Write a sequence for this structure.
């Protein structure tokens, strides 16, 4: 399946659609009513979002009697991940870490930007650790 990155980004620019994908990833196949209840939106609104997600190839459905369960299309989501890896500027190739060879040839500007990102991430982790320690 060939996915046009611009179309995928446009489809995923709507929070509700991202929430639907996250819900299906976490819960497995769900019908419109189940998704509607979990997200607190009307079934017609959910149906419209599912139609767009299905046209983009990100979800699929197969009628089972009166019930139409929707599930994520894992192959399409993997293609999305590959697209994001291609446009990622940090050199991590989806690992979240700079590769050693990328570090050796990265510019000072890129490294400083990466350092700031790591500091922010470390700050978030430290804050969460403090929250958990306070709860114990």
């Amino acid at each position: 399946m060939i996915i046009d990155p611009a179309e995928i980004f446009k489809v995923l620019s709507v929070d509700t659609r991202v929430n639907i994908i996250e819900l299906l990833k976490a819960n497995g196949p769900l019908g419109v009513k189940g998704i509607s209840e979990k997200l607190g939106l009307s079934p017609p609104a959910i149906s419209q979002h599912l139609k767009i997600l299905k046209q983009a190839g990100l979800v699929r459905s197969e009628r089972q009697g009166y019930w139409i369960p929707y599930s994520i299309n894992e192959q399409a989501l993997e293609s999305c991940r590959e697209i994001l890896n291609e446009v990622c500027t940090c050199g991590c190739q989806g690992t979240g870490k700079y590769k050693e060879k990328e570090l050796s040839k990265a510019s000072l500007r890129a490294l400083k930007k990466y350092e700031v990102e790591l500091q922010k991430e470390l700050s978030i982790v430290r804050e969460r650790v403090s929250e958990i320690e306070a709860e114990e």
Notes: The chain is about 65% helix and 5% strand. Strands lie at 59-61, 70-72. The chain has a mean pLDDT of 83. Residues 130 and 136 are 10 Å apart (CA to CA).
